[in-house]
Amino acid sequence: MKKMTASRHARLDLTTKMMLGGRNPDEQFGFVNTPIYRGSTVLKPTVKALNDRHHARFVYGTMGSPTTEALEKAWTELSGAAGTVLVPSGLAAVTIAFMAFLKAGDHFLAPDSVYRPARNFCDSVLKRMGVETTYYDPLLGKDIARLMRPNTVAIHTEAPGSQTFEMQDIPAIAEAAHARGAIVMMDNTWATPLLFPPHERGVDVAIEAGTKYLGGHSDVLLGMISANERCWKRLRDTFVAFGCCPSPEDVWLGLRGLRTMELRLRTQEKKTLDMARWLQKRPEVLRVLHPALPDDPGHAIWKRDFKGSSSLFSIVLKPAPQEAVEAMLNGLSLFGMGFSWGGYESLAVPFDVSEYRTATRFDPGGPCIRLQIGLESNRDLKADLAAGFRRLAKAAN
Ligand SMILES: *Cc1c(COP(=O)(O)O)cnc(C)c1O
Questions:
Q1: Which of 87, 121, 211, 312 maximizes ligand 1 atoms within 8 Å of its Cβ, making it the mutation to test the pocket?
Q2: Given ligand 1 and candidates 96, 120, 162, 189, which is best to mutate, with the most ligand atoms within 8 Å of its CB?
Q3: Residues of 40-57 as b/e, b for ≥16 C-beta within 10 angstroms?
Q4: Which of 37, 64, 243, 378 has CA atoms 20 to 30 A from the CA of 294?
Q5: Is the CB of 193 under 6 A from ligand 1?
Q6: What is the DSSP letter of 154?
Q7: Is 309 in the pocket of ligand 1 (CB under 6 A)?
Q8: 72 Cα–ligand 1 center, Å
Q9: Terminus-to-terminus CA distance in the chain, angstroms?
Q10: 287 pairs with which residues across the strands?
Q11: Which of 164, 190, 207, 212 to mutate to test the pocket of ligand 1 (most atoms within 8 A of CB)?
C-alpha cells in the first residue's frame, strides 16, 4: 500500500476508511492484513526502555499488541472517539465501562429497557460495591433531570431498548446530564457507529458487543468501549488495572469482520425492513416493534438521529396459548432458537419482559418474539414463518 498522508486519509469516506483502518502492509512484508501477534513478554533493549512504561507503544501482552492496536485504531476512527479498549465480550464492555466511572456512594441511572445482563450487574456487583441504580422510563428525554441527584455521576442509555425497541432521545439526555456534570454511557450494539455516531450525539462512553455485527458470523466473543477526550484516560487506566483482554485470534476475527460490516449491515437492513413490513400485514401479528417503520412510536427520533437500522426487531402476536406459540417456534427450520444475534443466520426467541422491569409496564397485548434476520433469502424465511403461523393457528384451535 502506498503511504497516504494523514490529511488525505482524513478526507476519505468512512466506507474507505473501514478498509484501510488498522492496516500497515509496509510493516509486514506487503501482506494485506495485520497478523496475529500472540504474546505476553515484550522484550526491551535497555533498563531505561524497560522502565519507560508511559511512552512505550507496547509494554506487556495484557495492555495490547500490534493486533489489538489495529482494531482499537480502526474502531476509534469509525466511532469518532479519542480511544478504544477491547475486552473479551460485550458484557465485559458493559461491566468494565460501569466499573471505570462508578464508585461507592454514587447514584447511577439506567433505562428500564437495558440489556438484561447489564441490569443483573447493577443489581448484584454494583449494589454490593455501594452504587445505587435507579431504573428510568426509556422514553424520558430531558426530563431525566428530575431523577438526577447531587451524586448522580452517570446515565446509561441503550437505543433502541433491548427486546422492546423503545427509542431514547440521546442528545436530550446528554444535555441534561452534562448540565449537571454527569457523563452519558450508551450500549450502541444495535446501530454500531455506522448507523449512530455516538460521540457526535453527546455520548461520552460507547459500548459495543463486537460479538454481534463486527464478528458477524457467530464465531467470536468480543467487546469494544470507546470514549471521548473527557473519559478516555479513566477508561484506559481501568482497562489496564483489570487485565481483562481478549485473545489475539478473536481480535483478528474482529478486524476481518470490520471489512464487510457495512456490506452485511446494509444488506440485513433492507432484508429486515422487508420482513418487518410483511409481518405487519400478517393477520396473526398484532404489532411490529421496529423504529424504522413510520408508525413506530420511536420513528421520529430514529429518523432524526440514526443513519439506518439493523437486523433485530420484535413482533407481538395476537393473544394465543403458550403451547401454540411453542408449536410455531419449535417447528421452524431456518430460524434458529438461541441467544445473541448479528450473525449471518436468522434467529427467533420468545420473550417476556414483564417479570423484571421495574420502572415501566410493558403491556404488549400478546406473546412476543424477537427476530434477527440473517442473509438467507427472504422468500425462504417468509415460507418458514408462514408454516409457523399455520402451526400456531392449528394448535390454538
Ligand atoms: C449481546 C449484547 C451484549 C453482550 O455481548 P456478549 O458478547 O454476548 O457478552 C451487550 N449489549 C447488547 C445490547 C447485546 O445485545
A1: 211
A2: 189
A3: eebeeeeeeeeeeeeeee
A4: 378
A5: no
A6: E
A7: no
A8: 19
A9: 65
A10: 316
A11: 212
Determine the average pLDDT of the residues in 377-388: 98
Decide whether any atom of ligand 1 lies within 6 Å of the 162 Cβ.
Answer: yes
The Cα 214–Cα 208 span in angstroms is 9
Cβ(22) – ligand 1 distance below 6 Å: no
Is residue 164 over pLDDT 90?
A: yes
Give the pTM.
0.96
Query: Do 287 and 316 touch, CB atoms closer than 8 A?
Result: yes
Does the Cβ of 209 fall within 6 Å of ligand 1?
Answer: yes
* Kind of pairing between the strands at 205-209 and 183-187: parallel
Taking the mean position of all CA atoms in its chain, how far away is CA 130? 27
Question: Mean pLDDT across the stretch 237-245?
Answer: 97
For ligand 1, atom 5, the nearest C-alpha belongs to: 90
Digit-coded pLDDT (tens) for 62-112: 999 999 999 999 999 999 999 999 999 999 999 999 999 999 999 999 999
Mean pLDDT computed over 267-278: 98
Q: What percent of the chain has pLDDT over 70?
A: 98
Helices (H), the chain: 6-10, 14-20, 47-51, 66-79, 90-101, 116-121, 127-128, 170-179, 192-195, 229-242, 248-280, 299-305, 322-330, 378-396
Distance separating alpha carbons of residues 85 and 96, to the nearest angstrom: 10
Q: What is the pLDDT of residues 19-78, one digit of tens each?
A: 999 999 999 999 999 999 999 999 999 999 999 988 899 999 999 999 999 999 999 999
Grid cell of 355 as nine digits: 417479570
Cβ atoms of 266 and 375 within 8 Å: the answer is no
Determine contact, residues 346/388, Cβ cutoff 8 Å: no
